[in-house]
Structures are given as structure tokens and as C-alpha cells.
Amino acid sequence: MDPRQFRNTLGHFATGVTVITTKSESGFIGLTANAFSSVSLDPPLILVCIDKKAGSVHAFKKGQPFTVNILQEKQEEDCWRFAKKSEDKFKGASYFLSDDGVPILKGNLATIECRVDDLLEGGDHYIVTGSVKSAAFDEQKKPLLFFRGKIGHLSEAVEIKP
Fold first, then answer.
1. What tens digit of pLDDT does each residue of 42-67 get?
2. CA distances, 26 to each of 78, 88, 97 (Å)
3. Which of 2, 6, 17, 49 would bridge 35 by S-S if both were Cys, CB 3.0 to 4.6 A apart?
4. Where are the chain's structural domains?
């Protein structure tokens, strides 16, 4: 399989954009990820995939608290801030600390506080499963989207009928 063809094909699946935040002995960690999914409602579990080459992967250990910040359309700057390598990705970011001391970005579409449940090998990524501690959302905001390698916005609300 041609890696570029595979990547381009996967890019045709529109996803939301998240910033995963946690803390380590050396400070706060933040990275942009679109490989995020719910796993289970009972018990509440999510997953996020993190590149094995990411400098922050060391911070994700069993029991470690982390937050999934699901971005809204006005957080494109946060998307790019946490996608790039930088000494201090939180410089200029607007955030507060959770009860566990993990940064939570202000203005999110949704926020999910978790603890690392497990780390699984998945090719060139780790699959991090998280036990959900709390979840909150804002019904007034619209999502930031990733499609065909670009960031986009939902042009109009779509009502899904049963």
C-alpha cells in the first residue's frame, strides 16, 4: 500500500479537532490530535492516538490525568499552536487548571477529563484509552473540522432526524 495514497484516502473522512493536554515533571503538555473516538458508554471510555515520535508521549502513563479539549470554530489558532513543535506551547493560550492540575483550554466546544486507562501499540502510534472522569459541552458553539488536510468550519447546522 502506498503510504501517501492511504493518507490521502483517510483525509476524506471529516473529523473534529482536539487538543490533548496533560502535565509532566517538566511542565504542561499539549498536542493537536484528530484521531479521537468514543469507545464505551458503560464504563465511559475514549481513545486518542498519539504518534510514537511525539516528544510528549512519555507523559501518558497508566493513571495519568489528561484532558480532551474538543475545539470549536474560533479556536483555529489553538489547533495550530499545539500542532507545532515549540518550547512553550501554552504561551499565549487561554486556559485554566483542572482539579488534577491539567490545563483546560477556555472556550472549548466540549471538554472531557480522563485518566489513562491503557496504552496499546498501534503501528507508528500508541492508542491511549482514557477513563472519563467528567464531560461538558457548549450547545451554542460549532466544531472546528479537519478534512483533506485542511482546517474548516461547519457552514450550517445540520439537524439529524431519527
1. 999 999 999 999 888 889 999 999 99
2. 21, 11, 16
3. 49
4. 3-153
d(CA 118, CA 137): 25
* 3-153 belongs to CATH 3.30.450.20: no
Half-sphere exposure of 142 (CA within 13 A, CB side): 10
Provide the strand spans (E) within the chain: 15-16, 18-24, 27-33, 36-41, 44-51, 65-70, 95-97, 103-105, 110-122, 125-137, 144-147, 150-153
The 10 Å CB-count burial string (b at 16+, else e) for 93-123 is bebeebebebbbbeebbbbbbbebbebeeee
- The pTM of the full predicted model, rounded to 2 decimals, is 0.90
Amino acid at 66: F
